[in-house]
Amino acid sequence: MSRVLIVEDDPAILAGLKANLEFDSHQVLTAVDGEQGYRVIRESNPELVILDLMLPKLGGYELCQRVRGEGFHSPILMLSARSQEGDRVLGLDLGANDYVSKPFSLRELLARVRSLLKRADDGRDDARRMEREIRTAVEVQQRLFPQVRPEVPGFDYAGLCRPARGVSGDYYDFIPLPSGKLGLLLADVCGKGMSAALLGASAHAAVRAHAPAADDRCGELLARVNRLLFETTTDDRYVTMFYGVYDPETRMLTYANAGHCAPILLPAGARLDALTSPVGMFPELSAADRQVTLSSGDTLAIFSDGLVEAVDEAECAFGDERLIEVIQQVPGDKAEDVCNRALDAVEAFSRGCRQADDLTLVVACAMV
């Protein structure tokens, strides 16, 4: 049984439609003016609305526009004695799904009601199926993030990702290497949603496959991944990527930065700037890498741009300075706690605003 609202000020038409829809086993709600119709829609969320255009208090066009603007998605079937093309076009432009001119054929109107309800039901089935698929994808992706962190002498590190849309286009990973060194990866795919997640998974798998042989030749590794992605993606698909290899014996971090926002080394505030274009953007990528030594007490923050570009209601960005302040808030704090505190701070800063991008942070601390 579907819940149908009729908004009609003509008592004879209202009574006739109500009787026939109830005979078709629908639950029927009624309203005799636009304001009453608006209240019923807000309170009862009907599965279909039959809406007369010429209504007292609030016209059909205005009612349709208002409820669509407030997120009402059920089908709207407009009724009107107006038969001009412009009237029909305006109604459809404002969010109506179908239009019937008075005087109307009752059989045709009921057929249109059945058709609209079936399409809406099919759409809900599709949405539920997509939701299940996304939940499965989220579960799979969460298992791709590091489940354990290999112990590295004198090195505390952690990562955290909070997606904007269920599945994430950001990836981070910690890769133990045969030499005893540790690979640190953070990648951010251009785009969002499922397509970004799939490309991110491909890039992630390529890094994982070639990292053991590359060891600390970070530039060579990203150049190889670049060739693989460029050959298998379109020109507008690419990945910004930071990959570093930490040697606990020398405290040396060798890194390559392919178009990624520059990580911050604290307390000095040094930036590990991009050395090349993003991965997958061009056929060849320079095998460029650099080295930096981490002193006792140093903290490296690697993050996606979604974190520092998150905005508040005044459209002010969270920014690097706030991130630095949050990271340094509790000296000697564990890397995992720093990650949680930082992402909580970003979400609190952006409260009331839709999260526009994935939030990902990796924190690594050279312990005293």
Description:
Helix 1 (11-23) links the parallel strand 1 and strand 2 (27-31). With 368 residues, the chain is an alpha/beta fold. The chain is built from ten helices and 15 strands. Helix 6 packs across helix 7. The mean pLDDT is 87. The strands form three sheets. The protein has a five-stranded parallel β-sheet, sandwiched between helices. It is elongated and about 90 Å long. Helix content is 40%, strand content 23%. The protein has two domains: 3-135, Rossmann fold (3-Layer(aba) Sandwich), CATH 3.40.50; 145-366, 4-Layer Sandwich (Phosphatase 2c, domain 1).
Which helices and strands, and how do they pair?
Layout: E1 3-7, H1 11-23, E2 27-31, H2 34-44, E3 48-52, H3 60-69, E4 76-80, H4 85-93, E5 98-101, H5 106-144, E6 155-162, E7 170-176, E8 182-189, H6 193-214, H7 218-232, E9 239-247, E10 252-258, E11 264-266, E12 270-271, E13 290-293, E14 299-303, H8 305-308, H9 319-327, H10 335-349, E15 359-366
Parallel strand pairs: 1-2, 1-3, 3-4, 4-5
Antiparallel strand pairs: 6-15, 7-8, 8-9, 9-10, 10-13, 11-12, 11-14, 14-15
Helix pairs in contact: 6-7
CATH topology of the largest domain: Phosphatase 2c, domain 1
N-to-C SSE string, H for helix and E for strand? EHEHEHEHEHEEEHHEEEEEEHHHE
The value of Rg in angstroms is 29 Å
What is the assigned CATH homologous superfamily of the largest domain? PPM-type phosphatase domain
- The end-to-end distance, rounded to whole angstroms, is 69 Å
Largest sheet: 5 strands, parallel
Principal-axes shape call: elongated
